[in-house]
Amino acid sequence: MNSRELYNQFLNRKRASGLSPRTIEAYDYAILPFLQLYPELPVPAENVETYIYSNVWSQQKRSFVFRHLKAFCCWYSRKLKEENPMLDVLKPRVKLYPVRYLTKEEIQRIYAEVSSNKRNKAIILTLLDTGIRVGELLSIRLSSLDTCILQVNGKTGPRVVPISPIVTQLLKEIALPSGEIFGITKSRVYRIIAHYLNRIGFDGKKGPHTFRHTFAVHALRNGMDIITVSKTMGHKTIVQTQQYLRLAQGDMTEAHTKFSPLNFILTEDVIQIHHERTPRRIFE
């Protein structure tokens, strides 16, 4: 069957399910070059694997193409009642880099840097307070705001996000006559954030997602349950949120080692000996 015709049907289903225009663009980017090579479907698994691995791509792009092509192949194989070629395609391995987020001290420093510019302050406080994506940030309108509630349109569809009243008030103060809040481009937001992260000497990735990581880790450390964090961030599954839980737990373990009251009564040598032994009850 004609591959472009099938792909258009696939996209129509995705649009009907509420998929964002940005995600549709991602599918186009990953799949359209494949359709140019193969105007008729189905395609054997070896052809799909050749397409994925013969191109000189970064690990991240190869994985990106694999994920989007997998969704399309799964869909069309069911429609055509054919075997899914992706079942025999080797999944790319991607090197995972540690998630870098802002510490409490770094949050305080960036707030001090941005406090004199109301719009930039609103951008950073909103990202820190809600954990939303940059596209969701730019979708905010005056009509989206309530005292403690923010309505956003994200890649997983519309959702309601809690927001602090002080941030809501700040957003209302900078709202444009059109009803938009910021009225700037995504690239402009990236430049603003990179500027302030550079100012404080931040050594991680300098983009809006850093604030999303920061929200998740600190929310979990401060007692928000993982399901609420997952829903607030618009994750499809709780698995996506668990990476932050591991980070938060790691921080808590580190803090416990440093600040435990046992440090007042036990020497470092005694604590070390205890950790090397089989765990047992200390207090009877």
Round the Cα radius of gyration to an integer and report it: 24 Å
Tally of contiguous helical segments:
13
Could you give the order of strands across the largest sheet?
Answer: 1-2
What is the third-level CATH name, the topology of the largest domain?
hpI Integrase, Chain A
* Tertiary shape: elongated
Proportion of residues in helical segments? 55-70%
CA(first)-CA(last) distance: 74 Å
Instruction: Assign the CATH architecture of the largest domain.
Output: Orthogonal Bundle
Strand portion, in percent?
Answer: under 5%
The overall pLDDT, averaged over residues, is 84
CATH top-level class of the largest domain: Mainly Alpha
- Count of beta strands: 2
Topology order in helix (H) and strand (E) letters: HHHHHHHEEHHHHHH
Question: Structural class, from secondary structure content?
Answer: mainly alpha
Unreliable residue runs: 268-284
Largest sheet descriptor: 2 strands, antiparallel
Total number of domains: 2
CATH superfamily of the largest domain: Intergrase catalytic core
Overview of this protein structure:
It is a single chain. The chain has 284 residues and is mainly alpha-helical. The chain has 2 domains: 86 residues, DNA polymerase, domain 1; 150 residues, Intergrase catalytic core (hpI Integrase, Chain A). It contains 13 helices and 2 strands. A two-stranded antiparallel sheet has the order 1-2. Strand 1 and strand 2 form a beta hairpin. The radius of gyration is 24 Å and the shape is elongated.
